[in-house]
């Protein structure tokens, strides 16, 4: 790897560690649940190790995984690294993926939905801009490789998706962008439960289309 590549990888490792600590401190991650990844220039990914707490990551122990799923170095990767790779394959512009088990988003994933193609209403402009339509991916047990194909199908048209009885996956052009979109998703899920059965006024179709024209994903 070139000297520039070494510097870039070191910076990304440090960013993953800082981001994991921030998400843990904010209560968006707990225990050893959730995982983060970034894509390197050669197509391999840095991903958080299996059974690791996002609140206590170290740069040198992050896993590096090849584009075809081989463990290259670092600690053993998250057992969910395979669906990170599926997202990257379908979204060439994505350079980061965030998957957490935050409380309100997971609660939404446990509900029955009449329309699984978009399981949160467009309550705010920022949800539309940063998250967009949020489809529900059918349930698979943790670690089931069949989940990768399901994720791949949804990733083609969505930067975010919700795994049934599990939690969201959010992709972004940078780790910061993916985290900000994830936070917007969790805040919209909070609003969804706070509003409950009260009469609400989500954004109209015309308002959503206007946002999509001005802020294409």
UniProtKB/TrEMBL annotation:
Reported cofactor(s): Zn(2+)
Keywords on record: Carbohydrate metabolism, Lyase, Metal-binding, Zinc
E.C. code: 4.1.1.104
Residue stretches making up the Class II aldolase/adducin N-terminal domain: 14-193
Catalytic reaction equation(s): 3-dehydro-4-O-phospho-L-erythronate + H(+) = dihydroxyacetone phosphate + CO2; 3-dehydro-4-O-phospho-D-erythronate + H(+) = dihydroxyacetone phosphate + CO2
A molecular function GO annotation: lyase activity
Claim: Zinc is one of the keywords in the record: yes
Summary of the function given for this chain in its UniProt record: Catalyzes the decarboxylation of 3-oxo-tetronate 4-phosphate to dihydroxyacetone phosphate (DHAP) and CO(2).
NCBIfam families on file: OxoTetrPhDc, PRK08130.1
Family membership: Belongs to the aldolase class II family. AraD/FucA subfamily.
Name of the protein: 3-oxo-tetronate 4-phosphate decarboxylase
The organism's taxonomic lineage, starting at the top: Bacteria, Pseudomonadati, Pseudomonadota, Alphaproteobacteria, Hyphomicrobiales
The gene coding this protein: otnC
């Amino acid at each position: 790897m070139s000297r520039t590549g070494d510097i870039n990888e070191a910076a990304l490792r440090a960013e993953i560690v800082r981001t994991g600590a921030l998400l843990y401190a904010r209560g968006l991650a707990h225990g050893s649940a959730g995982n983060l990844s970034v894509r390197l220039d050669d197509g391999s990914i840095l991903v958080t190790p299996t059974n690791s707490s996002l609140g206590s990551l170290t740069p040198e122990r992050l896993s590096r995984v090849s584009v075809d799923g081989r463990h290259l170095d670092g600690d053993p990767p998250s057992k969910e690294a395979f669906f990170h790779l599926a997202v990257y394959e379908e979204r060439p512009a994505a350079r980061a993926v965030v998957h957490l088990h935050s409380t309100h988003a997971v609660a939404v994933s446990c509900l029955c939905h009449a329309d699984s193609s978009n399981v949160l209403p467009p309550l705010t402009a920022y949800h539309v801009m940063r998250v967009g339509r949020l489809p529900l991916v059918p349930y698979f047990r943790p670690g089931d490789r069949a989940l990768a194909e399901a994720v791949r199908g949804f990733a083609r048209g969505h930067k975010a998706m919700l795994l049934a009885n599990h939690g969201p996956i959010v992709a972004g052009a940078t780790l910061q962008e993916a985290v900000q979109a994830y936070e917007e998703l969790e805040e919209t899920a909070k609003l969804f439960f706070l509003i409950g059965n009260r009469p609400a006024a989500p954004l109209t179709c015309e308002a959503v289309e206007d946002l999509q024209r001005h802020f294409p994903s």
